[in-house]
Structures are given as C-alpha cells and as structure tokens.
Known about the structure:
Blueprint: E1 5-10, E2 17-23, E3 28-33, E4 38-42, E5 49-53, E6 58-63, E7 69-73, E8 76-81, E9 86-92, E10 100-107, E11 113-119, E12 132-137, E13 143-150, E14 153-158, E15 164-169, E16 174-181, E17 186-195, E18 202-208, E19 214-219, E20 223-228, E21 233-239, E22 245-251, E23 257-262, H1 269-274, E24 281-285
Amino acid sequence: xxxxxxxxxxxxxxxxxxxxxxxxxxxxxxxxxxxxxxxxxxxxxxxxxxxxxxxxxxxxxxxxxxxxxxxxxxxxxxxxxxxxxxxxxxxxxxxxxxxxxxxxxxxxxxxxxxxxxxxxxxxxxxxxxxxxxxxxxxxxxxxxxxxxxxxxxxxxxxxxxxxxxxxxxxxxxxxxxxxxxxxxxxxxxxxxxxxxxxxxxxxxxxxxxxxxxxxxxxxxxxxxxxxxxxxxxxxxxxxxxxxxxxxxxxxxxxxxxxxxxxxxxxxxxxxxxxxxxxxxxxxxxxxxxxxxxxxxxxx
Length: 299
Ligand SMILES: O=C(O)[C@H](O)[C@@H](O)[C@H](O)[C@H](O)CO
Ligand SMILES: [Zn+2]
C-alpha cells in the first residue's frame, strides 16, 4: 500500500472528464469530456490525446463487440466509428424531457448497455431533482426503463459472480446494491451498501476489482475509496491532487493500473490556480490489485 504512485498523464483539462474505459485492442484509455462535448483517446505510447468533437454533451463511452464504440449523447444512445469520426443515433430516451441528458453508463457482463439520465445541471450538483431514469439498451436496440425519480444517475458495475448490480444516484450519497439477473438483465431488491462520510462528499463513478471490492470516485472529495460490499466498510482511501475526481477504471498491462478522470467545471480562478491539474487524467500504480476488463456492447 505504501508504494501507491499517482501521476497526471494527460493534463489537457477536461471540463467534466468521465467514463474512463480501457480499450485493450488499441492499448489506450477512452473517456469523455461531458460538457466539453468530446470523446477522447489517450495512448500511453504517444502520451497524446486524440479527440472527436460531438454535437451534444457526451456522458459515457463503451466498447462494442463489432469494433468501435457506443456512446450516450444528449438523450441518445449512439454508435461512434472512430476512424471515420462518424456518429449515428441508435435510439432516444427521455423524449418527454428536453432538459435531460444521459450521465454515466457501462456495459453489463452479458453485453447490455446500462445508462441513466439526469436534468441538465445549473451548476455542479445543482439541478431540477427527480428527473432522471435508469435505462438498458439491449443488443437488439430495444430499451427498457428500470426506474425513474433519479437525481444524478452515476456510477455502476456488477459483482464478480454477476449476481449483484451496484449503482450510485449521487445526491443520495449512497452506493446501492440490487440483486441482478444476468439472464434477463432485470434488477431488484434495492438496498444501500455504503453511505458516504461528509469529507468524501459526492459519490460519482465506480469500478470493481478482481477481489470483488468497489472503487468509488468522490466528486469534490478528491479521492477514490475502496469499499467491501460484503461488510459495507471502507477499506482504503487514495487521495488525488484535484477535488473533482469523477470516475475510475482499471487498465494498462493486466489491468493493474487505475485511471481516474476529473473535472474543472464549477471551479473559480483561485481554485483552479491551486489545482492546475483539474480536469486531468490520473494514473495510479502500486495499488496491488487488478481490475476486470470492460465488457463490450453486444449489439
Ligand atoms: O460527472 C458526472 O457524473 C456529472 O455529470 C457531474 O456533473 C458530477 O457528477 C456532478 O456535478 C456531481 O454530482
Ligand atoms: Zn459521473
């Protein structure tokens, strides 16, 4: 634990960096800048970020079995062809809510794309409440709504045995668990697994490691925390040099490195001058634990 090392690998300065995903085929980290309206790809070899500009807030990106990516764009699920820089709509959600947009999303172990919505923020964490819903995009491109009344739909992942779905609605300050049916993609029996402490602030994106423990990025908390879903206890805290840590994933060789995205939206000049790396991408090594490869969307 003492050899934990944190490095800012891309300091381009996202407005809201989010949804980091390791793309093994490309040996690169894919992520989005939500309000910057960009899908980005960072190569550890060139140390450069390539970006594709899109026409709406892009809140998550996922791998696709057929190659390339799927994204949540505004209130749409869309396909993104990287080389061609081509975005095509798959389907739209929340048609009756023009002020909404998608937020975090992730593909389940069976290849279904889960993503939730929220009202557009007036400023960070300030928005019309209860406007969001959680959706699944199936491989046949049909969409199912699981529930509504969500404030800020955020981090999600599945337990190693695929029997539990973990989910964060940020303004509940809770990491929740559901029973998960991998056969059908249905969720049920919601309960709180962990309540954030005050200095941890707002729970945002999360990912699971190969020991079945959850890593949660704490927005305004400047940290990632490792939780034990069995006991509901926090096992570890890793602090970062920026407050607005938004999400995390494992990547790199054998998924032994952790990547953390961050945001700069909502910070004034003073705050930004104290944290010049705000909006950067961070690599954490020496955690002594590995992650699970991301699942590609099956459709
Ligand atoms: O990164 C996200 O998931 C949201 O889009 C952000 O806006 C923050 O989470 C939010 O401001 C804090 O709750
Ligand atoms: Zn988020």
